[in-house]
Amino acid sequence: MDIPSKYDPKRVENHWYDYWMEHNYFFSKPDKREPYTIVIPPPNVTGVLHMGHMLNNTIQDVLIRRARLMGKNACWVPGMDHASIATEAKVVAKLKEQGIEKADLSREAFLKHAWEWKEQYGGVILEQLKKLGCSCDWNRTKFTMDDDMSASVIKVFIDLFNKGLIYRGYRMVNWDPEAQTTLSDEEVVYEEKQGKLYYLDYPIEGTDEKVTIATTRPETILGDTAVCINPNDERYQHLKGKQVVVPICERVIPIIEDEYVAMDFGTGCLKVTPAHDENDKQLGEKHNLEIIDIFNPDASLNSFGMHYEGKDRFVVRKAIVKELEEKGFLSKTEDYINKVGTSERTKAVIEPRLSDQWFLKMEELARPALDAVTKTGDVKLFPKKFENTYRHWMENIRDWNISRQLWWGQQIPAFYYGDGEDDFVVAATAEEALELARAKSKNSELTSASLKQDEDVLDTWFSSWLWPISVFGGILEPDNEEVNYYYPTNDLVTGPDIIFFWVSRMIVAGYEFRNERPFENVYFTGLVRDKQRRKMSKQLGNSPDALKLIETYGADGVRVGLLLSSAAGNDLMFDEDLCQQGKNFANKIWNGFRLVNSWEVAEIEQPEASKMGLAWYRAKFNQTLSEIEDHFSKYRISDALMAIYKLVWDDYSSWLLEIVKPPYQKPIDRKSFDEVIDIFEQNLKLLHPFMPFLTEEVWQYIKTRSPENALVISEWPRVQEADANLIDSFSMAAEVISGVRTIRKEKNIAMKESLDLYLINEEKLSSNWDVVIQKLTNISSVSYVDQAVEGALSFRVKSNEYFIPVKGAIDVEAEIKKISEELKYTRGFLESVMKKLSNERFVNNAPEQVIAIERKKQADAEAKIETLEKSLASLEG
Is residue 747 assigned to a domain? Predict the structure, then answer.
């Protein structure tokens, strides 16, 4: 069969992916095999492939392909998240381009546009994952707003509400003024920003006195309803019971007393703005203060903002500081570093805001999920260091704000029938709601027109926390065949940045709705950063185009490049050179196969060197396979790849193929050839999870195979006992070969010129390796002697000394001069080391590790001097 001279990923990748799809290799249904299940962290429907996705999904594909080779029923469920905030923003922006405002549309009309957008643009990333080689069961693709997925969410909401775990409350929440919705605490990112501390003078009513208050947000003074002092603060005892006048708005507000105020912070006086700060709100409730909200939903000022009405909060900040200064209320300003909450999605600065929202009580729900990770070990986190992060959050968990002021998402199934605080019912349909409302209100005259469904939708995470259960229909049909077979899933691969958003909540949902864990292991990837350690982002422009990388280096090259430097939980410093390394590896494998395939095969006797080399490689393969299995068991995916990389590049390509390669224009024996092909096939099986396209291409070139014998569904090698003695003895032989090759290279002795090799201390190396040494170094004979050989150069391997007579092959006088100079330098180096080691102060004070390094330098130098002296003596003799 003609094999192309170069490996062409563009030709190969589309061909084999189509072949795999055509033969349904990724398809899974329940059977008698052991299931192995992964659910994809559903990317946003708005998403496109980036480096984080590439890393995360490559690891998932490695795990699923390996499980498939191990004979398990491998099921990788793909899907997308509806991403309420991000998607609604995209749709609103698209409508604006068409001159349409969301506010001018009905909910139904807006959702029609949203679904059209989803059909046109959504799901791009799933097609891109196919380019990467991801072997998902595409027949199972789920979307968090599929009818059955939405029905699952609504059923869960109703169930939790009926258990008393969901409640509606007027609370201080995180408000995103750009998306104009609330956010949960986990969706707020706190960043240190340089700001100002403004010292403002509030006049004491009816006096010429004033009190100074420090604030970072001078615009919020328009919502002040009190000034608070510590009752124990001697500086302000005379102010008790008095009132102050708020600058600009001239509202008269009381001075209240509370030990909450820290006397040693700022001026010891606190402005209280209950509508715009959680702590102020608690003070307001305690002291029955008025609540004045000065902001519109977009964070512009409302009518309470007086002449600033309609202006943005940050514009107002600058303007009001100027006005305060002009009117004599600003005493001073200071630079101040403040932690500012920003929206994880829109990056807008968060406003604390009071509003009616839906909450889920988390403390009781969290207990089983906390124990599963920190006590029983039912769910294992890799790396283990994330257990402390998980524990801290779960032990300090707060109620989850699950309502969002959006239209894209599952609408909250609450129906209002009156103006009272408790005049609502929760039901899956309007018909059920009417029945419940009539019963609750004891008013049989209520009609469907009397009901108004809550306008809000549920937090997107309230949908995706059910993902491992709902993708198998386990919420709507808790005892169906699929969920009973595939759940709990095996492995979850995700980033540590969503440990709170998603991972912990899925564990909570698993124990609440199925009374068992959702997965056994969680593998946290690191973040992909550039060479300057910066997180990759569109804003910085430091994130390469993922598809362009695949086009340039091939999917296998990119996969290898990513994984070679991606230890679990550690950030990956991405460099395109890594992808080039992966591409080079693919070419190495391809060229190695072309070499073997070019050999003529004959029915001749197997050479002893080939027999030895093949026996050694089998042992080395099994030793490495055992290491690989250990790496996989500990989720050290990069280490597993590196072990395979070294096995194939070094042991197979650099050593075995050289050992068995027939002499120039001579045939190879049938037995050796068949064994090499078998070994090569075993290598391809190990490589397949990491490099699926290249390996399938070579596998199919080796011989004609039926679809039942494709590599993608072949059998993962089984670990067999490795002959450690064989591996160790070859290791010594390899060092001998390297020693001879070094002398040839340094002394410019051509390979065609045959040399003799002499060895002192015969017992250290089995003479069986002589044939291999002779073949790979063109040594005519290996002899064993009791003393140094005259006229020879020497080198040392372990405690053995080897001599190669070179008189006549080299310029002896020049070599004597060269060795003498090297000997002089090495003696000088040893002398400097010995000076250090004879210095008592150095030995007594230096760390043990430093002393150990110096002693190794001493031993190496002494051994080298001994070898050089013998070489010099033999040449001079």
Answer: yes
